[in-house]
Specification:
The protein has 273 residues and is mainly alpha-helical. It has one domain: Arp2/3 complex 21 kDa subunit ARPC3 (Orthogonal Bundle). Helices cover 66% and strands 5% of the residues. It has a two-stranded antiparallel ribbon. Strands 3-4 form a two-stranded antiparallel sheet. A hairpin with a 6-residue loop joins strand 1 and strand 2. It is globular. The two termini are 12 Å apart. The mean pLDDT is 86.
Length: 273
């Protein structure tokens, strides 16, 4: 976590930034960052999550750099025409870690009532995701679950760890929906317990994950509309189900990673490296 007695961008933050930027690139290069989720697109991305984590644990500059590297990687490697537009691929990603940092910092001192309100919002998001997941599981005739998904560039050879079709894919999607729902419910229960004990830290982290994810989604979709790639009436309904999945997954992953980082930081006595 960023503290007042640390330099603005010292060795510790440089190391954190480099590691999380490498993770963002790895998630894209291996396609492991596209998780199979039962929604209209068939997956949800976590490639933006390293930028959120960077902003929370290392500050806004680190978050901006990691987000920028994520955007630049998307710009350079995508075969999708609209992601070859730097105002779509790069510019929105610069703000992911920045907004996550400032929301995290501003929410660390909230009172219990506000904490309950935020926990209720997260619970509602989990409920919406469960509804979307179970209503978008395909039938056996059309079901296909491939992870990591194939690279859209035909020149790149892809190997998948999981390749399920038909009934097996339907059962896998059902299991994924249940697992995500159970983990999401567990996260909400833990957050409520933290609020009851006036431990607001992880609620601030979870809310920062929501803000960072919404920053990515809203700014990318906004630029797609402004730049004329898609009309709002087409792109917004298409993106909404995926946005809910990405928000809940980002909360789960971010809370787990930051909690682990805090424990490591505590065990080593808050080393500056």
């Amino acid at each position: 976590m960023q503290t007042a007695n640390q330099p603005a961008f010292g060795v510790r933050r440089i190391v954190i930034t480099g590691i999380l930027a490498a993770v963002a690139i790895l998630l894209g290069a291996t396609r492991l960052g596209f998780l199979p989720v039962p929604n209209p697109s068939g997956n949800a991305t976590i490639m933006h999550v390293p930028a959120i984590i960077a902003g929370i644990i290392a500050g806004p500059i680190s978050g901006l750099i990691v987000g920028g590297i994520f955007g630049l990687y998307s710009f350079l490697t995508s075969v999708t025409p609209f992601f070859k537009d730097p105002l779509v691929a790069i510019l929105p990603r610069l703000f992911i870690g920045v907004t996550a940092y400032y929301s995290y910092r501003s929410l660390r001192g909230i009172n219990r009532n506000t904490g309950y309100t935020l926990a209720a919002i997260i619970a509602a998001l989990v409920a919406v995701l469960l509804y979307i997941s179970f209503t978008n599981i395909p039938g056996a005739a059309d079901a296909s679950l491939v992870y990591p998904p194939p690279n859209p560039d035909p020149a790149v050879t892809s190997r998948s760890l999981i390749n399920l079709q038909g009934t097996a894919a339907v059962r896998a999607y059902q299991a994924i929906a249940v697992i995500i729902g159970l983990i999401g419910i567990a996260v909400v229960v833990v957050l409520i317990r933290f609020v009851q004990q006036d431990k607001i830290e992880m609620l601030a982290v979870s809310t920062a994950a929501i803000v960072g994810t919404l920053t990515n989604t809203i700014l990318v979709v906004g630029m797609l509309i402004v730049r004329g790639w898609f009309p709002a009436a087409v792109i917004i309904p298409a993106v909404l189900p995926q946005a809910f999945a990405e928000i809940v997954i980002a909360v789960i992953v971010t809370a787990a990673v930051v909690a682990g980082w805090q424990q490591l930081d505590s065990d080593r006595g808050g080393s500056s490296v």
